[in-house]
Amino acid sequence: MHNTIYVNLPVADVARSRIFFTDLGYTFDEVFSDDKAISLVLGENIVAMLLQRDYFDSFHPATTADASTTKECIVCLDADSRDGVDALVDRAVAAGATPGDTEDHGFMYGRSYSDLDGHSWQIMWMDPATATGAEPE
């Protein structure tokens, strides 16, 4: 039904967010980035639009949640391996993120962090054989 997802998140400082997510290894689509918003490429057809808070507020009259004090959503992304989960979350924490929880169910592993604006990011890996119902090797 849909081809692309754009998650819009308010940020206090677009330039600071660019540095943070660059440190994590992400890139930006400069065609859709300016001084009010940056287009964070999370994967093929997965984009987070990080919008300066006043610009974000202009899209809807409702009060914007402060993600550092109010849970707004959890952005969950997959990784290629358990090591990939650890590497990304460790980079996020080194870049200033607040570490979150760790869940290890053997076949599924995840860790979370809160970014500089308090947005919650869950990075997870699941054993492909288990996910497809095949017998684990």
Automatic annotation (TrEMBL):
VOC domain sequence ranges: 3-126
**Gene3D superfamilies, A to Z:** 2,3-Dihydroxybiphenyl 1,2-Dioxygenase, domain 1 (3.10.180.10)
Checking InterPro entries in the record gives: Glyas_Bleomycin-R_OHBP_Dase, Glyoxy/Ble-like_N, VOC_core
- Specify the superkingdom: Bacteria
Check the record and name the PANTHER family matching this protein.
BLR2408 PROTEIN, BLR2520 PROTEIN
Task: Tell me what this protein is called.
Answer: VOC domain-containing protein
Origin species, per record, is Gordonia insulae
